[in-house]
Amino acid sequence: MKKWKKAAVFVAMALGITFAVKMDAEAASKITGVKQVDAGDHTVKMSWDKSLGCDHYVIEFSDDLLKWVRMEDTANTEASVFSLSSGSSYYVRVTGYQDWSWLNDTGTIYSEASDPVEVVTAPDVSGITVTQSNATKSGFSVKFNGGSNSGANYYSVYLSGNDVPLGVSDTPEVTVEGKLDAGTSYQCNTYACRKSSTGFVARGSGKYEFYKTLSGKIGVGSFNIDTVFNNINVYYIGIAKTGSVDGYQLQFLNTAGKAKKTYTQTGSSFRIPDIVNGTFYQYRVRTFVDCGTKKVYSPWSDCRYIGMPSKVTTDRSSSALKFNWSKVAGVTKYEVFMSTSENSGYKKIKTAKPGNRSVSLSKFKGKKIQKGKKYYIRIYSCAKIGGKTVKSGVAWTGYYARY
Q1: pTM higher than 0.85, yes or no?
Q2: 12 DSSP 8-state letter
Q3: Gap between the Cα atoms of 277 and 235, Å rounded
Q4: CB under 8 Å to 345, separation ≥6 — which residues?
Q5: Where are the beta strands (DSSP E) in 160-233?
Q6: How far apart, in whole angstroms, are the C-alpha atoms of residue 95 and residue 32?
Q7: In the structure, what pLDDT confidence band is assigned to residue 28 with cuts at 50, 70 and 90?
Q8: What whole-number distance in Å separates Cα of residue 379 and Cα of residue 336?
């Protein structure tokens, strides 16, 4: 039996006190409509239907439906009972009296005790933490931790400012699904509760937090290599902002589809110092939501491609324009373009096989190579992936000038 916090209850239970009443032989009806209308972690409030002829009501509590203890009496059709244990269930019944004597604390029973009704107090949530445990494109899950002794048996998640729950559960993990937008952060209140057999829910104090849904698959137009430093093998890859996410993951794969390097970070701009030069790679990105013990990832994007030679050398002693470049592993061919302007006017001057990585050119666009003039060069790598030839999205870029 639970320890009653109200001193009167201890005395009554210990001594087996019963309350002397005079029973009206004609009384036959019961008090009806007893229900719980509010709760705190140490209090419950009840109401019931008015019984004509009654001028007083006595509220009795029990935790086993055998021993009943009077907790309150009132002339009204509602009452609150205090000093109860948090996160607990009790049974309540109400009896109606006539000719009640305040002096003797007795009266004549006019309406018999109602049928017992279960009432509950709200859990003490001081030891409970709430964390996001999963995420999908249209929902999320939250987990209540540390509440084994709180008395909670029901859990709920509400959008802040909305009194309709997004999700409820009889277990300490609540899943909200199919109602939310992808890649969005939602401000929520979560409650550990105690629910009675009548369906009344006593909510503990709310925990306030933001919870995120997963973004969708990132499009290939939303990420790219922003800056290339060929000479020091450093590349910067930027990803357009993708909703409310906790971070991004970038992965490089070889032409066979085997992952070679994966980078994970909260920011959307990646500095890559150690992976690109000398090999043809596929690269792809995805977002994640951090759920504490795990990260939940969106689907991978489709791939983009990069393949840079680690070295390009020129022969400045010849009257012709001559240069060659180092091998890029996995490449099936190279396409070489040239222009006399850095940002426009490029013309393909050679399609080279993997074993023929050099160019010798005495004329460009019908004109002899001029001494002291700059000629801008772009070298693209191509590879076959999944039976299809694909091209690096970024070229090795430099210029040649014969002085």
Answers
A1: no
A2: H
A3: 10
A4: 339
A5: 165-169, 173-176, 185-195, 201-203, 207-212, 223-229
A6: 10
A7: low
A8: 5
